[in-house]
Design goal:
Shape: globular
CATH architecture of the largest domain: 3-Layer(aba) Sandwich
Order of helices and strands: EHHEHEEHEHHHEEEEHHHHHH
Radius of gyration: 22 Å
Structural class: alpha/beta
CATH class of the largest domain: Alpha Beta
Distance between the termini: 43 Å
Strand content: 5-15%
CATH topology of the largest domain: Rossmann fold
CATH superfamily of the largest domain: NADH:ubiquinone oxidoreductase-like, 20kDa subunit
Helix content: 25-40%
């Protein structure tokens, strides 16, 4: 009897889907994956159902690559389910690891988002004020939708995670490295980030000098010198405080690093680390001069916390009650999420 292959699962929660596509960027190595694993769950690519996973024994899946943030009950339910069914759970990509773009929603709350999307946006035509409901009764029966959370969470804020693979999306070489480590059984210690622990600047070939920034420019405002450090030229670049691993791809095409690989090991708050790094190269002395320089960044919060707000010390803006006081976060439990699974 042939030896049973280990089982692999891939799941897509709240994200753009780029991480799902990035798996195919390993090209012919996908054949090695197919040869080494029995793919038992990959809804994006193959016809699998949630009930197929529920029917498996706990721990039956050897490895799950879980991408996407957790922003509704269904995401949370699947995170708990895949955690329970998987021996190894990998936070695959920036959304699962740090919150990424979905995490920027933590600068507002559900009430304001619903009001703008379904009532106030310039393109909305909704005279009856209809909003999505968790339960809707129709002639054919009852329809349900996952409850939409106030706060976007990272995967490890909902369930324990064994390994992290950063990137938006992860570069193919690190996906290959992770797959080969899994196949060989030579995995790093649990909790490790699979990749490098130097900065993007270490991978960038541009010439650097002492930085004395007096103004930041938007990419369309200047034509940068292709040989000189973008930050030296006043173009925002997060490479000085971002984990390497991408090959400095954005700086290669005259675009500053935006920070999708997250901070290096030991950094508690990636946004604060980036603010500190930039503050050290600003050519200003007085508070007024410093403010003038940073005023040329049109969206500081978006620049500094574009990928990591949900996993930062800030995490989100305060939720304020009708009386103007701060209130504790309240997340409804919708039909997909068993209350006993909630943190």
């Amino acid at each position: 009897m042939a030896e049973q292959k280990p089982k692999l699962a891939l799941y897509w929660a709240s994200s753009c889907g780029g991480c799902e596509i990035s798996v195919l960027a390993i090209h012919e190595k996908i054949l090695d994956v197919a040869a080494a694993f029995d793919i038992v769950f990959w809804p994006c690519a193959m016809d699998f159902k949630e009930k197929d996973v529920e029917a498996m024994a706990d721990g039956e899946i050897d490895v799950c690559l879980f991408n996407g943030a957790i922003r509704n009950d269904e995401n949370a339910h699947m995170a708990h389910l895949m955690r329970r069914k998987s021996k190894v759970l990998v936070a695959y990509g920036s959304c699962a690891m740090e919150g990424c773009m979905p995490g920027l929603a933590n600068f507002t709350d559900r009430e304001h988002m619903m009001r703008f999307i379904y009532h106030d946006s310039p393109s909305t035509d909704n005279p009856d004020g209809v909003e999505p409901q968790i339960h809707t009764v129709v002639p054919e029966g009852e329809l349900t939708l996952p409850a939409f959370w106030n706060t976007v969470k990272t995967l490890d804020q909902v369930v324990p995670v064994d390994y992290y693979l950063p990137g938006c999306p992860p570069e193919a070489k690190w996906t290959i490295a992770a797959v080969e480590a899994i196949i060989s059984g030579q995995l790093p210690p649990p909790g490790s980030v699979i990749g490098m622990n130097v900065t993007v600047c270490d991978e960038c070939n541009r010439t650097r000098s002492e930085k004395r920034i007096k103004q930041f420019y938007r990419p369309y405002e200047i034509i940068p010198d292709p040989e000189i450090c973008l930050l030296d030229q006043g173009l925002f670049c997060a490479g000085i405080a971002t984990r390497a691993g991408c090959g400095a791809l954005c700086p290669q095409v005259n675009m500053g690093c935006r920070g999708c690989y997250g901070p290096n090991e030991g950094v508690v708050d990636g946004g604060a680390k980036l603010i500190s790094a930039l503050a050290s190269v600003v050519d200003a002395e007085t508070p007024e001069e410093i403010d003038a320089v940073f005023d040329t960044l049109p969206d500081p919060a978006g620049y500094f916390y574009r990928f990591n707000l949900a996993h930062s010390l800030l995490r989100r803006t305060h939720l304020v009650g009708s009386n103007g006081t701060r209130v504790a976060e309240k997340i409804e439990v919708g039909p997909q999420l068993d209350p006993k699974l909630k943190d």
